[in-house]
Design goal:
65 residues, mainly alpha, 3 helices, rod-shaped
Length: 65
């Protein structure tokens, strides 16, 4: 996948994350649900990065002593 394709697929996945809290308050229920799902997916991605980093660090520390 080309870098511009990856950027496009990422930007098209998150429509509501950039909204201010005041704008999120005014969303209709179906869009509010979509916004919540986008935030959840973003947090899961961040957690995955952090957990893989700590897992690699722990594995490195086990092998080095």
């Amino acid at each position: 996948m080309a870098p511009d394709e990856a950027a496009h697929s990422t930007s098209s996945s998150y429509h509501f994350v950039h909204l201010a809290p005041e704008e999120i308050e005014r969303l209709p229920p179906d869009e509010l649900l979509q916004a919540c799902l986008e935030y959840r997916n973003l947090l899961l991605a961040i957690m995955g990065v952090l957990m893989s980093r700590s897992t690699r660090r722990a594995a490195y520390e086990e092998t080095t002593g």
